[in-house]
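The authors assume throughout that readers already know how a fold can be written as discrete tokens. What matters is that the chain and its backbone geometry are given together, residue for residue. A single example would do more here than another paragraph of explanation. For illustration, here is how one protein appears when written out as sequence plus structure tokens.
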Amino acid sequence: MGQEITLTRFEEDDFIAFRQKLAEETALLKQLLARKACSQRRPVAGFEIEAWLVDQAMRPAPINRQYLATLNEPLASAELAKFNFELNCDPEPLTDQVFSRLHAQLERTWQNASRHAERMQHNALMIGILPTLAQSDLHLGNMSDLHRYQALNEQVLRARGKPLHIDISGAEHLKIDHHDVMLEAATTSLQTHIQLPPELAPPFYNASIIASAAIVAVSANSPFLFGKELWQETRIPLFEQAVETGGFAGAAGGPLHRVGFGSGYLRHSVIECFEENLAHFPVLLPVTQDTGPEQFAHLRLHNGTIWRWNRPLVGFDSDGTPHIRIEHRTPASGPTPLDAIANAAFYFGLAHNICEQIVRQGLPLTFPDAKDNFYQAARHGLDSAIVWFDGSRHRIDQLLRTELLPRAADGLHAFGVNAADIAAYLGIIRQRLASKQNGSHWQRRFATEHDRNFTEMTRTYLKNQNSGKAVGEWR
């Protein structure tokens, strides 16, 4: 969800004071990283997953205030829209039966969330974009009652000076204008986190960039928006355009965007991302905190308004030692808790294997190729073709079978993950490839066979989700 704030309107002095504190904290983080004073804890895994509340007609239900107030779930919180919520987890050491443990956590919280929604005569749903969503649902009256979101809306529109413009060309073409940031609420995701020793964070960040194409292809679950068939993972272009404030000149002169793939690989340290944040992204939420620089309150708030698909985060161990995490944001929410944990396992394993190769041999792929791969995979999913390490173009489904799944298994084994966990959760990905069915493929097939009856699609999707079967088995 991000940090809550106390103000919604700001003066020029607020921006000046915030930037001063942001510069001080960025400089301090650079010093701590140089002195190796951040946490050296072994890798730790976690996730956040966003979801929808829908009524009996499968339409978005703006009830998250009442829902969360009575849910009795400390790991649940509000999201931008009143019809969205988020579930978090307690992080787990990335070894042994880590995915069984994370899966058990998610199943517990999800079953609790689902049953509570049913007691309120509603349903909880994990899906990237709700097929029954209408543009008219995305208005400020449906914005969650948090200062952060009100201020973000005002600052994004102030920076733009004009309405948000959405232009997505896929199987069909969607072109609309919108007058607030509520379009972002149409996109719900699985966000994985991995805490790493700082010296391992740069190659793991770079490996995450390279792995992003494969992750978004296997986890695609958002083919429809406002009744139009667009990309296999329409969340990607929608989110990039939904909070766009205009490009800023990067260090190399190219444009930088608040939501996007980033400007390049890290060369030496994660501080490069935070220095880029300071130098090239105007402050959106200048809420000064009465905290010391060692709390990094301003750095963390500013970083939370820059949505790279892979981004470094600063957090703290239980003893107060600062640590570095890499957040990976490309998978859609759902289709089931089992599928979500399988997506996380595939990401952690593949990124770790590529990371080890980067450490040994250097970067195997140019950044422009990695970026092009990502958008090809978001557009075409398992039907895409990407450039790989040998310099030639491969069908991604074939590459997944022959190279990427074995790489992910090797990466998980190197973490010390239990062999049964590796087989079980990567087996879910293999099942999708065998049936050629992720969430996006299932939705497209249903729409074709049922004349785009999105209400019945969502109802059937919910039944399948509640069955516990992974999406590769859905009929």
The mean pLDDT is 94. The longest helix spans residues 337-361. Residues 163 and 179 are 5 Å apart (CA to CA).
